[in-house]
Design goal:
With about 290 residues, the chain is of the alpha+beta class. It folds into three domains: about 70 residues, 2-Layer Sandwich (Uridine Diphospho-n-acetylenolpyruvylglucosamine Reductase, domain 2), CATH 3.30.43; about 120 residues, Uridine Diphospho-n-acetylenolpyruvylglucosamine Reductase, domain 3 (2-Layer Sandwich), CATH 3.30.465.10; about 80 residues, Uridine Diphospho-n-acetylenolpyruvylglucosamine Reductase, domain 1 (Alpha-Beta Complex). Helix content is about 25%, strand content about 25%. It is built from seven helices and 19 strands. The protein has a five-stranded antiparallel sheet with strand order 6-7-13-11-12, covered by helices on one side. The protein has a four-stranded mixed sheet with strand order 1-2-5-3, covered by helices on one side. It binds flavin-adenine dinucleotide. Flavin-adenine dinucleotide (FAD) binds next to strand 3, helix 3, strand 9, strand 13 and strand 15.
């Protein structure tokens, strides 16, 4: 099954997530086009197999039992970026950093905030990724995608219903294949300087040398998750090899753990923060797959 798409069989998801955690996917495929994605859904449907779509795996905790059925990774084979005037169209597998670099090169401003977010355009649109007062929703004007039945669509920014770290992708069961960004003219040197400044701030504050999925929890209304976790004295707190980063309490990191440990650490942190400061932390990362 899926051989003609070059599927990897029993592929460890720890190889395809920035947390470096997760058991095997039954089948993992890197499609080259929207048409190929439609064909993959049709074949999975014919065999009654579930389908999971991922990008760079930088916002995912895949559980130790892995993922049944087909995993479609929209990444390395769908990375085309095209500029027309002040509009950049990028395929869903393009990395946000590459799109931001292309924009800077062309003297287009608006994506500086995204240059250090280690995810794809598809993942960024799905999560409405954001940082330093910027978010994907500010520049996206349209999104191309398809539904599991193969029907292709173009959705406007309004139809994407962007909110804090969410969009209509999940509720509509949309597969993003391309996004169009409308940017402003600017000076390449200034755009590059802003990107360097933001990336330096990231490197100073975030544990970029240890596997993580970025901020584990969403920002609760009126608070910062990292500040609350720190206030509870949880920096360095660990379950097995899963640990609250000493550098940034909002990052839970993998220092040689299982997904089970990581999940347990998340629960403990949520429990302690709720008990001590009365705030319920909600996961920002998406948890998928089966427990072993
Ligand atoms: C060190 C580090 C720093 C980070 N900093 C930030 C930050 O500053 N701001 C921020 O917002 N995030 C940050 N993140 C989290 C992450 O990079 C973003 O959420 C990113 O947008 C996820 O993109 P991805 O391609 O990795 O998506 P994945 O993690 O692969 O998937 C995330 C979700 O999107 C869905 N998805 C992915 N691609 C598609 C597609 N083509 N069609 C439909 N659904 C799709 C998946 O099903 C899943 O639900 C950080 C992560 C790390 C590791």
């Amino acid at each position: 099954m899926f051989e003609r798409f070059g599927a990897l069989v029993n592929e460890p998801m720890s190889e395809h997530t920035t947390l470096r955690l997760g058991g095997p996917a039954d089948y993992l495929v890197f499609p080259r086009s929207a048409e190929e994605i439609a064909a993959l859904f049709a074949e999975a449907d014919a065999h009654h197999l579930p389908v999971t779509v991922i990008g760079h795996g930088s916002n995912l905790l895949v559980l130790d039992g892995g993922i049944r059925g087909l995993v479609i990774c929209i990444g390395k084979n769908m990375r085309k970026i095209v500029r027309t005037g002040n509009i950049i169209s990028a395929q869903a597998g393009a990395m946000l950093g590459s799109v931001a670099a292309e924009a800077a090169e062309a003297g287009l401003s608006g994506l500086e905030f995204a240059s250090g977010i280690p995810g794809t355009v598809g993942g960024g649109v799905t999560m409405n990724a954001g940082a330093y007062d910027g978010e994907i929703a500010q520049t996206v004007i349209a999104v191309n995608g398809l539904y599991p039945d193969g029907k292709q669509v173009t959705l406007s920014r309004e139809e994407m219903k962007f909110g804090y770290r969410r969009s209509a992708v999940t509720e509509k069961n949309l597969i993003v294949t391309e996004a169009m960004f409308e940017l402003r003219e600017g000076k390449p040197a200034e755009i590059r300087a802003r990107m360097s400044e933001l990336n330096a701030r990231r490197a100073e504050k975030q544990p970029l040398d240890v596997p993580s999925a970025g901020s584990t929890f969403k920002r609760p209304e009126g608070y910062y998750a990292a500040a609350l976790i720190d206030q509870c004295g949880l920096k360095g707190y660990s379950v097995g090899g899963a640990m609250v980063s000493m550098k940034h309490a909002g990052f839970l990191v993998n220092t040689g753990s299982s997904s089970r440990d990581f999940l347990e650490l998340m629960k403990k942190v949520q429990q302690i923060v709720e008990e001590r400061v009365g705030v319920k932390l909600e996961p920002e990362i998406r948890i998928i797959g089966e427990e072993s």
